[in-house]
Amino acid sequence: MAVKPIIHDELSLKFKSLPATKQDLGAATDLKDTLLSNKDRAAGLAANMIGVQKRIIALFVGPLPIVMLNPIIVAQDDKYLAYEGCLSLTGERPTERYKTITVKYQNENLETRQQSFSDFTAEVIQHEVDHCNGILI
């Protein structure tokens, strides 16, 4: 298990992440391990939060941690105002989110998947995809 420290430097978090490849699967495992070790205070993490500038996110879907490589939100519906916290930042901040999204991504076997999510899970995915794009709440 390779738990990594969480990055708090906003400047480094504002860089756009590069596409993930097969060579980044170790970083994906580290990200999942780090999420599991922070499960009491984090619903999701992006790779740049552990110092890896790749498009990889990890989040809980129910009790299970999943990893998405190169996630892209391809559809979104029903905008609302959310108040979110972030493990890399202090406090909560308002941000616009969508209740329902569809995400295209690769799983840990590099198989392409497309799946719809709603409610809190959709909110977490949007937050982490924003991290990949260098966007902070």
UniProtKB/TrEMBL annotation:
The keyword Nuclease does not apply. The keyword Hydrolase applies. Pfam families: Pep_deformylase. Keywords: Hydrolase. Its EC number is 3.5.1.88. CDD domains: Pep_deformylase. InterPro entries: Peptide_deformylase, Peptide_deformylase_sf. It is an enzyme of class 3 (hydrolase). Belongs to the polypeptide deformylase family. PANTHER family: PEPTIDE DEFORMYLASE. This is Peptide deformylase. It comes from Lactobacillus johnsonii N6.2.
